[in-house]
Amino acid sequence: MTHSRWWSIGGSLMVGLFVAYLDRTNLSVGLPSVARDLGFAGDRFAVTSSWALTIFLIGYAVANIVGGVLTRRHDPKTVVIWSFAIWSAATVVAGMAASVAVLLACRLVLGIAEGIYWPQQSRFAKSWFAPDELTKANSIIQYYGQFLALAIGFMVLTPIYQAYGWRILFYLTGGIGLIVIVPLYAAKLRPESEAPYAHRTVAGEPHGLTLAQAGGPPFLLLVFSYITQGMLFWGITLWIPLAVRSLGFTGMAQALASAVPYFAAIAFAIPMSAISDRTGRRVLIASLALLIPGVMLLLLLPEVDSGLAKLALITLAMGFYAGSYTPNIWSILQSTVAPEAVGATAGIMNGLGAGGGGTLAGFLVGLLYSATGSYMSGFMVLGGLVVLGGLSLLAYGGLTSRRSAPAIRPAA
Questions:
Q1: Which superfamily does CATH assign the domain made up of 4-191+215-408 to?
Q2: What is the tens place of the pLDDT at every residue in 27-56?
Q3: DSSP-assigned letter for residue 42
Q4: Rounded Cα distance, 379 and 382, in Å
């Protein structure tokens, strides 16, 4: 089972997350035509588009927090199969939408179901992989599928949209979930009772979640850092197809320009994951992954004039941040909270960070674009916020170093 778990557990969840991110980002690709067909082009575009893009994240935030706690006693295999089926069906229905209300309702269902799904991935990682394998496991389960979807997805979905319109994007991505991923999960994922590192419930164990189980007050610093990275990630990802078009990239060049930051993230993740597992310096690496890109966006982005130079800065910032922060932050969480609290704390952190932070960032970039005519002004503000997140994570490392260092040191 040693080798097969990387394929059956890690590989299956990676493919599933690939499709999940296609479901999240298909609207960003087709947004201009969606606005025209559903009647919110023109003066209503910025506000209505912000709602259409971020209502997913509102449902996602609530469901991550609530779902992570409520599903603690349920097998993660069952939870991921049902949640994937529900949001895939909602994605197909979104392709049939004739009004903004139907589109918003489907995107809300997508967010709720994916929010319930996300914490289960941390439960799989914690249960099936050893402590000194966690960064590699999280890279496979929660990282490569995500960023491959953003890299390849923009390149594949954009020409399909340009050739056949926006509705086919929803039929295609939702259909793959129902026809491919749900049967794949049923066949390949294993119940938690068979996992070698699963937490075994003991008599008298509390059903709720306490701050002590989450690691005490320093957990709040960890959450704050994740909120700022959620703002950086979603503030750029939701708007990047339109942002690169505003920099002069059109047609297939627009698709490539939208994808290149995520290819850079994949390239950075391969060496950074190996360094993290080998050295155990996960907190320091993740902190620098926020501080350095934040400074680049805040101070350097306004200093370059050409569209190509701005894209290069965005690519380097997103690549280094995502390749160094994202795999490590989940390893930090899984190594420092109580085993029975992994799913719940992952849901809280991702709900507040990706859901709450992403929602704020989606509106922030959209409204700043409406006020200034430039997406770059929003990206600069996100850079300043993520610097604060990096400082918060450094403070977390200082407060928890004595307690957490033995837990995350690689096994001899």
A1: MFS general substrate transporter like domains (1.20.1250.20)
A2: 988 888 999 999 888 778 878 888 888 888
A3: G
A4: 5
